[in-house]
Amino acid sequence: MNQTILEAENLCKFWGGLKALNELNIQFKDKQLHSIVGPNGAGKSTLLNTLCGAYPATSGVILYHGKPITHLKGYEFCREGIGRSFQKTNIFHNATCLENCCIAAQQRIGGSFNLFRKRSKNRQITEIARKALQQVGLTARADTRATEVSYGEQRQLEIAMVLATSPKVLLLDEPMAGMGHEESQTIISLLKELKQQYCIVLVEHDMDAVFELSDLMTVMVDGQHLITDTVDNIRNNPLVQDAYLGNDDEVF
Amino acid sequence: MSIFSSKSEKIFIYLFFAIGLFIPLFLEGNTFYINKFSTIIILSIFVMSLDYLVGRTGLITLGHAMFYGLGGYIFTILAPEYEAVNFWVYTFYVMLISGFIALIVGLIVLRTSGIYMIMITLALAQMTFYFFADSVEYGGLDGLFVYIKPETSIFGLSFLDLDNETHFYYLCLLSLFNCFVFFKVIMNSSFGRVIDALKENPDRAIALGYNIFHFRLIAYVLSSSLAAYAGYLFALQFGFVNPSMMSWDISATALVMALLGGLGSVFGAIIGSFMYEGLHYYIEHLTEYWMFFMGVLIIALVLTLKHGIAGFLNALGGKRS
């Protein structure tokens, strides 16, 4: 069995009276793609944001390689190796695609406080950035400004930037949001490759993609963990069907 | 690889410094104009430091004149009254002390951003203003006088006599050049890469693992100590310092100059300062209502040129060199 990398124990995130995450226990294993699904407002994005340190947890513990990291500051999560992509494209629009990845890679390599060394002189950073672009298939776009590439390519760039931070865990928030069928296929085949190297946590609404990719699935409802199981078992689970499709007496 | 980010910038900088080098020869010792140019060049250094902070780092401050004034005061307070001190040594002192003050101030003001940062920098600058305005020891509103100008020898060799207007002019020009090169170098550095990133999208920079507070603090300290250097030059040129140097309208005027020149372009700061001061000088001689016409003109320029004059020049000359 693969080793557990990232773990949440009794994780809670309250927004005032709203319990976005309520006593959540979940484990993510290395070299597996673990998707999190659930109806809107189930707390999936909140979970990702809490796991990557963007939102401080109200209570509970996040364990990374068995070590609690809950107390770390937001920016320190990335340094530990927890990279995340965003639901809404969150890139540096004025920079080229390569430069976007360089910014990501430079954090890992260091030298960010060097005031005088020309940024392009650091070959190591450029190499990592190029490799990340190559992994997502954006090599041809390296010198194009991020704002000028297509929406689908921006989503790919988003993932490339995460890869350039040399992460162990990838938290991907709807990488296929707003994509056409063909573009989604590109991402699906990319994720298939990536899950052989990384622990991937995927939040995604495209159910076909989720079923195709996932090793494990977790269903969340109202901030609570409903069930974690393999794809086939989830598909046939009456509880899940209930949560997603609603009871018969609910009107759509 | 050149340090220029556009062809227009390159042409402008070459032209500006070429003309700048030879202009005293044509003025033939007309000290009024030489002094005028020195003043505007000093102002350009100040505006450039503000332009870097506002335009490159994305930190909007209305209290930058505080450091401009402090630069002058630090020198005048530190230097013995009737003894010529070494210019370079005191440059070091002024920048070190103002940098240290900027560090403390930065630790406070950089916890805020946007409108709150504008307010808190303004508040701190006004506090400093009234501290000096009300202090008996530092001359109150009249300020302090610089009785003896520093000498400029390096290892016993002296090239510049600061009492000579032309020499002082060249010192200012050299300072502006160094300042420009310094900002261009840090903009192109690895540090500059992070600054660019956190200006455009601070949240993403945090998500990539950067502690943006540290980077902002460094930028703030660098910019502030260069503003102080400009204030130091001002004190040397006019032979006095007073609290009006750090009043808030100096900060605001500098912001207008930076805006006029093109925020974040650095070389735009030079254009902005010369343009503003040139218009001021010209219109002032035409009518006593110069503020009205100046205001209208600036509003028109800012509205028509979205990225300032530098942006206009860049568009003319094609973006990349």
Polypeptide structure, described:
The complex is a heterodimer of chains A (252) and B (321). In chain A, helix 3 packs across helix 4, helix 3 runs parallel beside helix 5 and helix 4 crosses helix 5. Chain A has 2 domains: 167 residues, P-loop containing nucleotide triphosphate hydrolases (Rossmann fold), CATH 3.40.50.300; 77 residues, no CATH class. Chain A has 9 helices and 10 strands. Chain B is mainly α. Chain B has a domain of 219 residues. Helix content of chain B is 72%, strand content 1%. In chain B, strands 1-2 form a two-stranded antiparallel ribbon. The longest helix of chain B has 27 residues. Chain B is globular and about 55 Å long. Chains A and B meet through helix 2 and helix 3 of A and helix 6, helix 7, helix 8 and helix 9 of B. Chain A: It comes from Amphritea atlantica. Chain A: One of its GO terms (cellular component) is plasma membrane. Chain A: It holds the Pfam family ABC_tran.
Strand and helix map with partners:
The complex is a heterodimer of chains A (252) and B (321).
Chain A: E1 4-15, E2 18-29, E3 33-37, H1 44-51, E4 59-64, E5 67-68, H2 74-80, E6 82-85, H3 97-109, H4 123-136, H5 151-164, E7 169-173, H6 181-194, E8 199-203, H7 207-213, E9 216-221, E10 224-229, H8 231-235, H9 238-245
Parallel strand pairs in A: 3-8, 3-9, 6-7, 7-8
Antiparallel strand pairs in A: 1-2, 1-4, 4-5, 9-10
Helix pairs in contact in A: 3-4, 3-5, 4-5
Chain B: H1 7-27, H2 31-56, H3 65-78, H4 87-109, H5 114-134, E1 144-145, H6 165-188, H7 190-200, H8 202-207, H9 212-238, E2 240-241, H10 248-261, H11 267-286, H12 290-304, H13 308-317
Antiparallel strand pairs in B: 1-2
Helix pairs in contact in B: 1-6, 2-6, 2-9, 2-10, 2-11, 3-4, 3-9, 4-9, 6-7, 7-9, 10-11, 10-13, 11-12, 11-13
Membrane topology (chain B): Multi-pass membrane protein
GO molecular function, one term (chain B): branched-chain amino acid transmembrane transporter activity
InterPro entries (chain B): ABC_transp_permease (IPR001851), LivM-like (IPR043428)
